[in-house]
Amino acid sequence: MTHRIAIIAGDGIGTEVMPEGIRALEATAKRFNIDLEFATFEFGSCDYYLEHGKMLPDDWFEQLKGFDALFYGAVGWPDKVPDHISLWGSLLQFRRRFDQYINLRPCKLMPGIKSPLAGRKPGDIDFYVVRENTEGEYSSVGGKMFEGTDREVVIQDTVMTRTGVDRVLKYAFELAQTRPRKKLTSATKSNGISITMPYWDERVVEMAKGYPEIAVDKFHIDILTANFVLHPDWFDVVVGSNLFGDILSDLGPACTGTIGIAPSANINPEGNFPSLFEPVHGSAPDIAGKGIANPIGQIWSGAMMLEHLGYKEAGDAMVTAIEEVLSEGDATVLTRDVGGEGTTASLGKAIANAI
Amino acid sequence: MTHRIAIIAGDGIGTEVMPEGIRALEATAKRFNIDLEFATFEFGSCDYYLEHGKMLPDDWFEQLKGFDALFYGAVGWPDKVPDHISLWGSLLQFRRRFDQYINLRPCKLMPGIKSPLAGRKPGDIDFYVVRENTEGEYSSVGGKMFEGTDREVVIQDTVMTRTGVDRVLKYAFELAQTRPRKKLTSATKSNGISITMPYWDERVVEMAKGYPEIAVDKFHIDILTANFVLHPDWFDVVVGSNLFGDILSDLGPACTGTIGIAPSANINPEGNFPSLFEPVHGSAPDIAGKGIANPIGQIWSGAMMLEHLGYKEAGDAMVTAIEEVLSEGDATVLTRDVGGEGTTASLGKAIANAI
Ligand SMILES: CC(C)[C@H](C(=O)O)[C@@H](O)C(=O)O
Ligand SMILES: CC(C)[C@H](C(=O)O)[C@@H](O)C(=O)O
Question: What range does the record give for the signal peptide (chains A, B) (predicted)?
Fold first, then answer.
């Protein structure tokens, strides 16, 4: 069975780490006898926008919908195209039109990676953030009135649907069930955001009835961010709305020191459309073009993709290879952000070899 | 000149730390010859709600508006009254009706307080979070449709006005001007929240024109929370919307290890209504009634109140007294949360003595 993967490298370091992601995937495919077929697309980047006046061609949906997965680099280059145009014109379209309603990110202390938190070591922190990925605070409903005057008022709706909330909660509860600690934490702010957030809480209570073996707690987002720093060991599966999930899934990897190398999966669990896998880091215009970007986020995203395609063992092997190369700590191999003097390619090759 | 202070202790440990806050204020008033007059109110607590069916009496506005400041403990006790009722019925009313449009919180590494961040010491972290405190994501506009069905949809508006955004930005820029580093960081999410947040960014650019000597940068809230953990030394004055400010002003003190002792000021800069001073910590039902709550947040809030009333030297003296007692590290005096075996009263008395 051939798995067709669409490659969109995007902008900046996205184009530099992508080849290493592919290298690692090819090595894994060979070892585990998986049949991957890659097709590369130029759209979904700011350069494409500058040429065509849009981030994607009109028929992007038709072009991509038949693939088994999308492997994305990074998008955005504010000096060329404002972020809200480049992101809404690409990544956020994929998430929404392909109904990738789960954004999943592991927060894990890795060997050889320095955590900014005092006294934490590998094994201490290991949790997932499950983020709602299609609705909530990221709406396109709203507008401006009395523009340009002192009475100017700008309004944007947060929109939560029962369908949207329940399905992300269901996914999170089922994920918690696969974990040894069977614990789920809900991010809320029902003490301040008085309409949507109490609704979110209600749906959590309702959903929890179907999962009596899961220990459920909730925190308001303000103190929850504090607890990520103070008690990262408390967490197992954390579920949040689009915005809260966004925040927590950057803060979590920051606490484990892995923000530059963390992966993320935008998943359509039913599989009626392709899911999308991308590193957490952005396009990093400041270091783009130097060949020094760390490719681990891209490679680790590839591991999540293989797991999603049904090859858990192969995905695990990729993560193990990453951990091995990090543990070895060879400065000629590692990139600068993790204490080495190597390049994107030297680190990518070492991981491919380890696989 | 007599300054009339309204005291509202609220719930849980609010009622325990308040007497220590008053003790410290009285000591300071004596030393600096300030004339303070306290009046105590029972409303604004969950017990009041249970008795009267509302958090505040109908004429609360009339009763309180003539005071020079409100000194608040903590409100909320979810087992008695749901948070969105207790908070919206009290604290959030004060903030809104008294137009306390600034929420100001210092994030400062203090001597003797362990930061959860590796390798940081007093002096390394010292910044302010300025939060918009009356509008934005904390709106009361919205509702539910198709209730109880699969089509259920819940909507809540974020509302930003030019007046509301500009005045908090102005305050933040002027605060930055009083600081040696003259740096301002704006919290945004204009790449995802595509209507209100680009507007916020626009107003920052506009306001910055009037303050050419201030160095301005901005971060999206997700990476900004990460940077609080990774680079807390980058920040000087950080300004954010109601929700973003809320998150950052818990996360900031968490990073400095001071979340249990940090103060906050809800300020009406024009002074046409009283400002409100309260510790960052909540009512902490879990430790209420044991006499072990740390009163520093309440005392430090008192210091901010004196500074607001025009007694900067007196406020500074209170903070110095706190720092002294923390530095001494006498375990019989300090409460458990900061490594001692003392009580709310032992710590409160020590600080009052130091003053
Ligand atoms: C209790 C809650 C409504 C409040 C807020 O979010 O404003 C609190 O978290 C705060 O920051 O003062
Ligand atoms: C780039 C931005 C729109 C995006 C988001 O907020 O969803 C990013 O931060 C992410 O988390 O994937």
Answer: none
